[in-house]
Records
---
Amino acid sequence: MSDPTPRKDMSLKGLELFQVCARQGSLQATAQETGLSVSTVSHHLRNLEDHLGVALFDHTRKPMVLTPKGHVFLRNIDQALHTIRKAKAEASAGNIAEASYLRIGAIEDFDSDVMPDLAVYLSKKMPDCDFLYHTASSHEITRMLGNRELDLGITTSPPERLRDLRDRPLLLDPFVVVLPALSEASLADVVAGQSKLPFLQFSSDLIIARQIAAQLRRLGLTLPQKFECGSNQTLMAMVAAGAGWTITTPLLFSRARRFQPQLRMHPFPGKRFSRTLSLVATPDCSRSVCELVNDRLREALKQHVLRSFQQTAPWLKDQFTLIE
């Protein structure tokens, strides 16, 4: 005798939400990551469990924990969902307007002008697409790309290999020295640690801080440190107030417009060194979408960042530049 109560159909959205929820352990966190309401996420998960006729989560525990059958189901669908996403990306590769969902992460260095420009442009080019934009550190964005929590990332190129991620170098951003405008100390004395100005540095857990520290070690420099901070704007405010000096990049300096009258940017003395900013994509992301984002990012960087430095700091012309 057949079951008189028909089961709900199993949807791709339900499978994707199950995968996210299994990783996050929370309906609220799943809703936040996917841009859906908690009730919508819960509805999809209930439908999936109804269709399978088994409990995938132990709903009495927080954070949510997979049941033994839930663990087996997750293991079997992970590769299947990867294959489906890749197939969808390839099928839509020639038709950007049909893209339905795109998750982009970027370091905060781009959030003043470049990312708003990109968001407006993509919303016009991809009118039926739902977008999720996420700002985080380079390390966090790389981790999210590796876990398939993002499709595209704009980040500092990490020194380690990116496994199966596609890395497209975007911008060469050289390191520079920033001093208070009224400082009378010479650049050479400041960098050698022979002035009264203390060195104000980025938080040591950031990739940019590790790059700077490595260069200072190569030069045999040990600088007295008074202040460590993860915020570029706070560092610029401290230097503008005459509290010290710092090593940063032109891109970061460009974001500190309100403090620039009280700041002076100088080339790093001696051997130059730079960081590379890249557009990083997962294998699932359509190449045509990557090309669209890459082209617009380059145009936005020219318009909002690079052109102004051609006037104010012509010595940066061959150092602060797009990577072709």
---
Amino acid sequence: MSEQPRQPSRITDRAQLADAGRVVIKIGSSSLTDAQGRLDDRRVQHVADVAAGMARRGTQVVIVSSGAIAAGLGPLGMPERPRSVPLQQAAASVGQSILAVSWSRALAAHELIAGQVLLTESDVIRSQTYRTVRSTLESLLELGTVPVINENDTTATHEIRFGDNDRLAALVAQLLGADALFLVTDVDALYTAPPCEPGAERIGVVQDVSRLTGVNIGSVGSKVGTGGMVTKLSAAEHASTTGTAALMTTPDLLADAVACRDVGTFFPAHQGRRRSRLVWLKFATRGAGTLRIDDGAAEALLRSRRSLLAVGVTGVEGTFPSGVPLDIAGADGRVIARGLTAFSSDELRAMIGHSSPELEDRLGERFRRPVVHRDQLVVL
């Protein structure tokens, strides 16, 4: 296997989807379960049929599948997805094997082998494990298998969870340099208003998610899932920003989408390269703590793209070492940026509100540095 990571082909037109050499298909719980919230093997088979068609034409396919917790609800007699983490973990433990068997059987119908991969957030964002995950997935693809990835809900806690498989899918697409990410959900496309409302129009193409205006976006997922339209748009933005085209649609329209027909909502890949560390900071991490800053510091970050200095810090929340990502919040508490801190939480508490010359005199030359350098910071 090559040590150089694969680069996406940066698809900018629907017609180019037919030439994608590597794709990620993400399918949510609501698209894999029946009205009672139980796993529906027929729905799994439908997606497997589309994936197999792509594989026959030479496309490498990775599936990011939700549904482990949902698959465990029926056998455990749970009427809906439990809220407590221990019960979610129990349901996932029962449902994960059911889900894996369903995918294995569905792909075996096309003489394809499924390779189950369970991930937690730390597996994908920590440099120590990031390369290992990539190497494993690359090996599975080289062997001709179809990796089926899910979050490891059985062991994941709130602190190490992706929170939704849309985010996981975008991270996997970036990790593998996928050409396209298909976000398969229970809504056929993005609309200018809720689809049930009169006058709602399908949005066929979104060039830049950050510039969407006049669109009423919901945020609540189904009773068996955790994602919503907001998470799917975030995943699409992540993918397109890192060079992977994205397309959002339903299972029924997935085959049409793969065939380059005008369905769903298409998000072209951005041509400009984004520095990987900034993309990682924006999409793949959450702050280990929070820095509160005053209005002057916020203005310097947002308007002038300057580094964050200790003099503008008004508060430190959490306990953390140096070198970790932190959320940076303005005076109103809203998180406006994220960056890698040059100092630990204990050091920062001693630095609050002091100018660089003062810190050098009191604590030493090392403390003259910015708290977060502008090259290690991304505005959210």
